[in-house]
Amino acid sequence: MDGTQRTFVIIGGGLAGAKAAQTLREEGFAGRVILIGDEHEQPYERPPLSKDYLTGRAERESVFVHAPGWYAHNRIELHLGQPAVAVDPSVREVRLGDGTRLPYDALLLATGAEPHRLGIPGTQLANVHHLRRLAHSDHLRGVLTSRARAGEPLVIAGAGWIGLEVAAAARTLGAEVTVVEPGPTPLHAVLGPELGAILADLHREHGVAFHFGTRPAEITGRDGMVAGVRTEDGRELPARAVLAAIGAGPRTALAEGAGLDLAEGGGIAVDPALRTSDPRIFAAGDVAAVAQPGHGGTSRAPGPGGGARRRVEHWANALNSGPAAARSMLGQEVAYDRVPYFFSDQYDAGLEYSGWAPPGTYDRVVFRGDVAKRAFIAFWLRDNHVLAGLNMNVWDVTAPIQHLIRTGHPVDPEALADRATPLDSLLPAA
Ligand SMILES: Cc1cc2nc3c(=O)[nH]c(=O)nc-3n(C[C@H](O)[C@H](O)[C@H](O)COP(=O)(O)OP(=O)(O)OC[C@H]3O[C@@H](n4cnc5c(N)ncnc54)[C@H](O)[C@@H]3O)c2cc1C
After folding, report:
1. Dihedral sign, Cα of residue 404, residue 286, residue 347, residue 157
2. Residue 296: its pLDDT value, please?
3. 346 lines ligand 1 (CB under 6 A)
4. Whose CA is nearest to atom 53 of ligand 1?
5. How many A from CA of 99 to the centre of ligand 1?
6. Ligand 1: centre distance to CA 112 (Å)
7. Distance between CA 400 and CA 344 in Å, rounded?
8. Atom 17 of ligand 1 has which residue's CA nearest to it?
9. Ligand 1 contacts CB of residue 250 (under 6 A)
10. Rounded to two decimals, what is the model's pTM?
11. Judging by DSSP bridges, how do beta strands 154-157 and 177-181 pair with one another?
12. Which of 154, 316, 319 is nearest to 240 (CA)?
């Protein structure tokens, strides 16, 4: 079939979907490209929703992946505000909520993830928030900046990335903030206690109160509004609003309905070419659990999907895997195997984290730089192999950190800690 007669459908109007559409055109695909998104907005980036967009420092226009006219200019057919409700691989057809049927030659599932719910009494009250969409961020900013009940805190359930970023944004807006977290430190399951303690100190210095080792048991209300949170260990915390920031799960319902293989740890199972168990259907971004080709450093650090699969809920993964899936749809050879990368901004601390080294996988953390001044790199090691690295207020080091992880080359911890030893000199000769 001539390429102009083929139709590629993308379900999911987020970063992965929008970048896949862009790549299809950049690679010269001349057929139909249809992008379906259940949100009303054109595809946008989510990181600002818990940072500068939430505080009001970033304009709404700045969050969109492409300028408004880009889609029409590139002949990307947008179906927005419209969920895809079924995929039928036997006839290669997508069905939309309004009954429209769209045939495809290749299909990309980039349906992202959705926040977990608290599942405790009181979650139906007004001012219990989740944060995934632009409207959620708008709503939360409205609550945080309203003068009514200004003395009462925002209670955040979960000291993960989003919980911490919102804590920082809310303090910047002058709100009182209390964080309730079942682990012993922030981000304990991701970073372990060493970095968790540094993050806890950062937030305490900015006036955040933490309650570790417990979770919300009930949200109490008054006149249909949040009034407080009772924790499992019996504390009564006043609250004008609650943010549930307890993680997200992949949106796999369509894949399940289509009979595609799912990964044991969650997500749509794909091979390194991002192809699902149906050769015409691909997946990318937060929803995809990618089989790892297995090599050096990263093969020792399997992702949250467990074993040989990795599902990464990070911006850079959406940015890179969307285009990789598009190239795969075009029949190009693709082996998607990036070191996971995450960035975050909290107050005046900017940080980047590469790799994967939760507690239990590493035997020591080596610091390079000035921890007290929060200008350092932390390396997680096992048997002197670098599993992960986090740089805080130190820049342009992601490439050598990822190279150390990827090569799996053993390093001398003292040289790693020594700022006078260039990181590049620790890498094996090419
Ligand atoms: C508040 C917030 C802050 C973040 N900050 C950072 C950060 O600082 N650094 C970082 O690395 N990462 C960050 N992330 C993570 C990053 O934004 C995600 O990894 C990224 O958005 C994933 O992109 P995606 O395209 O896979 O999915 P999404 O962005 O979730 O897009 C999927 C889209 O598909 C739509 N969809 C789902 N099902 C259907 C259907 N059946 N029909 C039609 N449409 C459907 C969804 O509504 C959504 O619009 C943050 C995430 C959030 C929520």
Report:
1. negative
2. 33
3. no
4. 132
5. 25
6. 5
7. 19
8. 46
9. no
10. 0.96
11. parallel
12. 154
Closest atom of ligand 1 to CA, residue 342: 11
d(CA 269, CA 277): 7
> Is the distance from CB of 268 to CB of 262 less than 8 angstroms?
yes
How many A from CA of 32 to the centre of ligand 1?
A: 24
For residues 285 and 46, give the distance between their C-alpha atoms in angstroms, rounded to a whole number. 13
Q: Which amino acid is at 124?
A: Q
Supply the pLDDT for residue 284.
98
208: left (phi over 0), alpha (psi -120 to 50) or beta: beta
Can you list the residues of the chain whose pLDDT is less than 50?
295-306
Q: Give helix 161-172 / helix 193-205 axis angle, nearest 10°.
A: 10
- By CB atoms closer than 10 A (0-12, 13-18, 19+), residue 10 is buried
Token pair for 361: 């996988």
Q: How far is the CA of 15 from the centre of ligand 1 (A)?
A: 7
User: Tens digit of pLDDT for each residue in 269-320?
Assistant: 999 999 999 999 999 999 999 998 653 333 333 443 345 799 999 999 999 9
According to DSSP, the β-strands at 154-157 and 241-244 are: parallel
User: What are the b/e assignments for 231-268, b being 16+ CB within 10 Å?
Assistant: beeeeebbbbbbbbbbbbebbbebbeebebebbebbbb
Residue 325 in contact with residue 144, Cβ under 8 Å?
Answer: no
For ligand 1, say whether the CB of 39 is within 6 Å of any of its atoms: yes
Which SS3 state, helix, strand or coil, does residue 128 take?
Answer: strand
Q: Give how far the C-alpha of residue 263 lies from the chain's centroid of Cα atoms, to the nearest Å.
A: 18
Q: How far is CA 232 from the centre of its chain?
A: 28
How far, in Å, from the CA of 38 to the mean position of ligand 1? 12
Tell me which residue has its CA closest to atom 26 in ligand 1: 285
**Centre of ligand 1 from the C-alpha of residue 102, in Å:** 24
CA distance 158 to 171: 16
- Atom number, ligand 1, closest to the C-alpha of residue 84: 42
Whether ligand 1 lies within 6 angstroms of the CB of 130 is answered as: no
CA 177 – CA 113 distance, rounded (Å): 26
Give distance in angstroms: CA of 353 to centre of ligand 1: 19
Q: State which ligand 1 atom lies nearest to the alpha carbon of 18.
A: 25
Q: Distances in Å between the alpha carbon of 400 and those of 163, 201, 358?
A: 29, 28, 21
Say what the pLDDT of residue 293 is: 67
Which are the contacts of 33, defined by CB distance < 8 A and separation ≥ 6?
A: 7, 8, 10, 21, 24, 25, 74, 75, 76, 77
If you count them, how many residues does the chain have? 430
